[in-house]
Amino acid sequence: MTKYSLLILLVVIFYSCNPNKSENDKPVAKVNDKILYSSTVNEVIPVGISKDDSLLIANNYTHQWVKKQLLISKAELNLSDQDKDVSKMVEDYRSSLIIHKYQQQLIEQKIDTLVSQFEIDNYYRTYSANFVLNRNILKALYIKVPIPVPNLAIIQKLYKSDKEDDWSELQDYCFQNATKFDNFNDRWIYAQELLNKLPGKIGDEDQFLKRTKNYETSDSTHHYFVKIQEVELKDNLAPLPFVKEDIRKILLNKRKIQFIKNLEENIYRDAESKNKFKIY
Predict the structure, then answer these.
(1) Per its UniProt record, what PROSITE patterns does this chain match (predicted)?
(2) Dihedral (CA of 113, 118, 119, 125) sign
């Protein structure tokens, strides 16, 4: 620990524990006429952490503060008065923040976030060209079992079966023996999400998905079982369930945009009717 680091830590700890901190606040660093006080450093240090962690945070914050002040000083020296005049930018940014906060507050209070299935279906039909797949998707079952596989013949029979009793038995088997048991039968996923879980590389993904129903492979430690239920290849229209959440977000966003447009127009018309502004 350097003397400088120790000094920072002692100053921060002492004055964070001192009930008269505002009276005893001491400088930690100085750049030109800018001073960093212990109270400011103390504000960024979480309560209850170790002295070593406090030192690390205090050190990092102090060095970053010094670098920032030096950079500001350098910029002040090298920029023209016109370039340094950021008051308009600050005011524009402040105005944008206030407007955004007000809009978001009203949106949270007024906007109905419920999007009906009818709206989703209608948008899907109307803009179907926007929902063409750019990657293959599938529904599948994925199982990973350590080698040696217990009762290999049994799991080979169970994972291929569509019988409800066999499914229950397969779940029991996987609970006891499988390292991974992922059931993607009830939702679409990108094919690569599944294929990346398998050892080796599938050469022609499209042909593999077209021809494969059940698939097994192994590496040095595990045996893998895959049952592909459904496939939709890229360049086909995405199934509605796959894009339903995206459509819901699109419709909500459109609703918000329209709400903001109406809000601005209503505020304008109200102010106009009460002669609150003049345009010369």
Answers:
(1) PROKAR_LIPOPROTEIN
(2) positive
Biggest distance spanned by C-alpha atoms of the chain = 88
133-232 carries CATH number 1.10.1760? no
Whether 262 contacts 131, CB under 8 Å: no
- Give the strand pairing for 27-31 and 214-218: unpaired
The number of beta carbons lying within 10 Å of the beta carbon of residue 211 is 10
Per residue in 45-72, pLDDT (tens digit) is 998 898 889 889 999 999 999 999 999 8
Domain ranges of the chain: 3-81, 87-131+238-280, 133-232
* Tokens describing residue 28: 């930690």
C-alpha count within 13 angstroms, C-beta hemisphere, residue 61: 21
User: Which residue is listed with tokens 């192994």?
Assistant: 218
Q: What angle do CA 108, 114, 115 make, to 5 degrees?
A: 125
Task: Provide the whole-model pTM.
Answer: 0.69
